């Protein structure tokens, strides 16, 4: 039989204490009616406040708690019940219990989150604020301790509509003041607050989560409050060099002193976050991006001349050198083709040189060895090697004599043989090969990777990391594929979005023909989409 719980608040059976703060204590409790676990937040009323103030506080607390209770949003902790308190128990709120970790614990561990990972979470918080603001509910206490992250990385915003004792009483008693470092200037000055107040506080949270430091800090409350009202925060990029000017512009707009210069609603913030994550210019913070000067670019850099066009004489000189080099290669290859046993060197530019077996090469090992020695003697004086690099072996039909003393290779710069070309390959193999030429369009991916599999074996891999203003990346490579039907598998990973998608299709490849495969990432499903053509 279950042991009876002696401690109760209202109808709820208290199981344990979850936390304690300036506003009161939070308990883990159980609803005996339906057996649901809930979080009970008991509001502590300090001593020394007169009865009229206490009555006003209770009425306001109950009114705002009810307003919070009507909200239903995936990023807002649901309020089940609010009680204004009695002689037997303090005012309390029964709300959804979330198994997760608040952001203030991450800060205490010294954990920092870069903008690319933080901004998707900020978007969830902004979505919650946009929903609440449209219901005329202002949070007024956005801080890391009121943001909880679940085990599956969902974000929940807590403590909506918690009423505050008037500022004069708060200051005098030192109760409920909470954490002034996250207050907006209008809160500090006792002015009327609106939805931009919550957005300012969210900017303070974002600054601290990225850098590990508060934008307005000090040894005492007076110093902190003065900085909030009168001083601008340090450039975030001086603390975290990985922060781009676009990310800093978004946070700077949140931290504007004047409410009219901030985002006017959470929808504008969401639009700028979406643009940032897509690598585009944030529309509402665009003016701040253009005015922002990177801290490390105080003087012009020489690389700024890269856009200056090269002089025409220089281009003509480079073109002439390239043409002469190509002409020399053609002459050397042509001279080799006139040897006693003409070897056909097929050149594939620009990737690699492929040596193909001679059409009339003898079958006997002894004859092959004699031919090699003959070509060595005739070409010995024609080529003086400039380096001591080991030449690549020439492929011939049949088995070569083990460990030949020298091997013939076209005079090409350090190109390697393809893995599927070995000394046992018959001369007809190149004709039995098909070619797969693929174009992998990564779209707006900032950080991610792609993998190409053929018959469940990795053929090619690619890592993508691009800047916000860089054009989308298209990965293009060519692979030789044996004739016949093969299974082609493509895997896509997006580091920022956490998306993982894979697509598998079978395709019939014809020898001597090139098959083109265009791969795009489906915007909705985030999976690779194939488009085949011959």
Main β-sheet: number of strands, strand sense, barrel status? 6 strands, antiparallel
Kindly report the average pLDDT value. 75
Q: What's the oligomerization state?
A: single chain
What structural category arises from helix and sheet content?
alpha+beta
What value does the Rg take, in angstroms? 35 Å
Count the DSSP helices.
14
> Strand sequence of the main sheet, in spatial order?
1-2-3-4-6-5
What features would you highlight for this structure?
single chain, 534 residues, alpha+beta, six-stranded antiparallel sheet, 14 helices, 19 strands, 23% strand
Task: Give a structural overview.
There is one protein chain. The chain is α+β, with helices and mostly antiparallel strands. It has helices spanning 51-69, 103-108, 115-134, 167-173, 185-188, 195-211, 221-230, 236-239, 245-254, 266-277, 286-291, 312-336, 365-379, 429-432, and strands at residues 8-9, 12-21, 24-30, 37-43, 79-83, 92-96, 100-102, 147-150, 155-157, 345-348, 352-355, 433-441, 447-454, 457-465, 474-482, 484-494, 500-509, 514-521, 528-533. The strands form five sheets. Strands 1-2-3-4-6-5 form a six-stranded antiparallel sheet. The chain has a four-stranded mixed sheet with strand order 15-12-18-19. A four-stranded antiparallel sheet has the order 14-13-16-17, with no helix packed on it. Strand 10 (345-348) and strand 11 form a beta hairpin. Helix 3 packs antiparallel against helix 6 (195-211), helix 3 (115-134) runs antiparallel to helix 10 (266-277) and helix 6 (195-211) crosses helix 9. The radius of gyration is 35 Å and the shape is elongated. Mean pLDDT is 75; it is low at 1-5, 163-178, 297-310, 338-365 and 378-429.
């Amino acid at each position: 039989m279950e042991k009876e719980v002696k401690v109760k608040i209202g109808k709820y059976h208290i199981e344990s204490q979850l936390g304690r703060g300036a506003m009161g204590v939070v308990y883990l409790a159980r609803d005996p009616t339906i057996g649901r676990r809930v979080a009970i937040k008991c509001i502590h009323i300090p001593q020394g406040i007169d009865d009229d103030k206490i009555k006003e506080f209770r009425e306001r607390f109950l009114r705002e708690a009810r307003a919070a209770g009507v909200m239903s949003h995936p990023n807002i902790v649901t309020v089940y019940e609010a009680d204004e308190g009695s002689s037997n128990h303090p005012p309390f709120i029964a709300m959804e219990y979330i198994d997760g970790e608040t952001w203030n614990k991450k800060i205490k561990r010294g954990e920092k989150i870069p903008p690319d990972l933080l901004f998707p979470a900020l978007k969830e918080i902004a979505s919650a604020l946009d929903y609440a603001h449209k219901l005329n509910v202002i949070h007024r206490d956005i801080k890391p301790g009121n943001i909880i992250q679940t085990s599956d990385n969902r974000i929940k915003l807590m403590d909506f509509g918690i009423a505050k004792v008037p500022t004069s009483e708060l200051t005098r008693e030192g109760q409920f003041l909470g954490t002034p470092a996250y207050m907006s200037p209008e809160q500090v000055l006792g002015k009327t607050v609106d939805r931009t107040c919550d957005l300012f506080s969210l900017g303070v949270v974002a600054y601290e989560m990225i850098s590990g430091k508060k934008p307005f800090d000090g040894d005492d409350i007076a110093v902190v409050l003065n900085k909030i009202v009168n001083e601008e925060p340090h450039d975030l990029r001086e603390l975290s060099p990985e922060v781009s000017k676009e990310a800093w512009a978004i946070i700077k707009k949140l931290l504007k002193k004047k409410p009219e210069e901030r985002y006017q609603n959470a929808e504008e913030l969401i639009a700028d976050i979406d643009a940032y994550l897509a690598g585009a210019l944030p529309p509402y913070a665009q003016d701040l991006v253009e005015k922002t000067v990177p801290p490390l670019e105080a003087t012009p850099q020489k690389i700024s001349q890269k856009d200056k066009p090269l002089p025409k004489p220089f281009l003509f000189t480079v073109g002439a050198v390239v043409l002469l080099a190509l002409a020399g290669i053609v002459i050397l290859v042509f001279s080799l083709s006139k040897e006693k046993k003409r070897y056909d060197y097929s050149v594939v530019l620009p990737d690699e040189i492929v040596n193909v077996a001679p059409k009339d090469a003898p079958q006997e090992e002894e004859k092959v060895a004699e031919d090699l020695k003959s070509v060595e003697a005739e070409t010995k004086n024609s080529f003086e090697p400039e380096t001591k690099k080991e030449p690549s072996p020439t492929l011939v039909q049949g088995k070569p004599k083990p460990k030949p003393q020298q091997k013939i290779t076209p005079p090409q710069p350090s190109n390697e043989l393809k893995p599927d070309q070995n000394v046992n390959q018959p001369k007809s193999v190149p004709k039995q090969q098909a070619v797969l030429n693929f174009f992998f369009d990564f779209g707006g991916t900032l950080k991610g990777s792609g993998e190409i599999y053929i018959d469940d074996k990795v053929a090619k891999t690619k890592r993508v990391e691009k800047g916000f203003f860089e054009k989308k990346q298209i990965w293009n490579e060519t692979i030789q594929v044996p004739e016949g039907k093969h299974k082609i598998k493509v895997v896509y990973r997006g580091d920022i979005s956490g998306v993982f998608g894979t697509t598998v299709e079978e395709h019939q490849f014809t020898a001597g023909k090139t098959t083109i495969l265009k791969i795009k990432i489906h915007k909705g499903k985030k999976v690779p989409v194939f488009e085949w053509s011959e």
